[in-house]
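Below is how a single chain appears once it has passed through the pipeline. First comes the sequence as given, then the structure the pipeline wrote out for it. We keep one example in the README because the format questions we get most often are answered faster by looking than by reading.
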Amino acid sequence: MNCARRFPWLPLALLAATGPACAPDRTALLVHVCLDVRVPDDVAFVRLVIDHVSRPDVAHVFRLPPGERFVTFSVRPGDDLLVPEDFLLSAVGLDAYGHQRIARTVRTWFEPDIDRDVAVTLEAACLGRNCTHGETCQAGICAPIPTVDNSNCPGEP
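Resulting structure:
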């Protein structure tokens, strides 16, 4: 049974190790969050946000294991997110109290019947930096949101 059909309130199935058990779909993004920050001193949680013009944002928050440098999540399209339309994917680093410390946004898309890797890096140089709409922090400065395709974290096993 398709997860989106079993859970119609989920416009996008965001799966982690504790996610619902469903038959695997063939279309997915493997989101690699690269951490150039101290866990849990700088960030304790990561919030993944999917932003698409046809529907409200979908966000899920996950606790980061102390000392972790890479975290990977599987993101699959739901019934209302068309493949291969593009969307914005944000990784937001939160402190232990849930306050935003850092964020990085990329533009990406689902590829029909393909699992793709997309890396999003939370850089220490961007701690406390807030960028305007249409921009994201890269190397400590606000820059236009990049399009990302088939990438991994540097040094990731």
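The chain has one domain: 3-144.

See the next section for the split statistics.
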